[in-house]
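Take the subject:
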Amino acid sequence: MADEAVVADYEPVHANEGRSSIGLIFFKFFSVLFLAGALCYLFMSNFNAWTPEAKKLSMSLEKQDALTVRPLIKESTVKEQLLKKEVCDLSVGEWIPKLAGPAYTHETCNQIPRYLNCLKNERPDTGYLHWRWKPSDCDLPPIDPLKFLNAMRNKSIAFLGASICHNLVVSLTCLLSKVEEAHDIFHDSAFNTRTWYYSSHNLTLYVIWAPFLIHYETIDNHGDKSQIDTHLHLDILDSKWTSEYNKFDYVVISGGPDFYRSSIIYENNQVIGCHYCPHLKLRNLATDEIYRKALQLSLKFIATSEHKPFVILRTWSPSHYEDGELPNERVCSRTMPFREGEISGAPSDLKMREVEVEELQKAATIGARNGVRMELLDTYHLSLLRPDGHPGPYGTYRPFDSDMKKKVQNDCLHWCLPGPIDTWNELLLKMLISGDAGDSVSV
């Protein structure tokens, strides 16, 4: 029995030791597997850390956002951020100094007419050439003429307006001349309506003299300046541009100071009033009222047309006449831009811009339903800050050669070439190339 007891005592101890041995074996086995797995993980992690993709994935969340490599679950947040992104208004900003000179001069561009050629006319100060427009919330890159010409290949652009419209187009031809010279393939006797052609890019620029956009008649009074010589028809469009309209891919419209001129106003071939004609017993029509009627008729034609070019309305160009009332007394002799808040603009000019904004907004709504894109190129305020950019007395060659105190008629309406008006083209070309209303000056 004792032996049995001994055996009995022994056998349980032996069984426990066996189970312990087996457990130890399993523990060692899994430990080896765990260590092997850990070593593999560390090896692969170190290996992947050298790959570009792993390097991206190791970046901060902000950097991942910038490289758009965040996981898909981030997509909704990204969309929300894009929706919250503010549109940059290129018309709001400031003029800042620039060291570089202008993109062209009278020596590199032979298109500049004498009355705009301030450098050739030996304007003594040149500070007006060393400013650039900086929008408040984004940047405006300098013009890339090759990029523009390539983007406009096989296209046509028409500019409708008067002398300031012509001023703008000559600026454009000079800016593009670094890549290709424009061929003057047509002009009328007064060089008002003109056509330029870029043969290497099959691009055509049209300037159509349409100072009122509506039909007008100039009456020959045989030199009698006391008589009204302009007759405006508020219900008839100027056929010089409507007859050509179907061949334009892009259209730039601009009103001008001709609307301030004395004129007799017609509707249905009947006189309904006049503007600035105190000696006539007719109802006086305000300038902005006439301009509104002209814009309404023109923009309605565009918005409802079967032809659908991209149409841009450039806002009113402010003048900077100071001092006297008579033409030879008014001057613009400033040589520096205004700072923000230093000038508010002439009430008449502000009213004309207001009319433009209101009428384009209404027409653009109608045009959108018809598939016609219409936008505003708002150059008014940035131009208002540049009283130094006009020819002033330097629309002629050395105007003070004979007498520095001589009364010389100043041009405080048009713009020197080169000069601030080149910035108008920077804005325009951005709109035409990008096709992005968010980055353009739109309503």
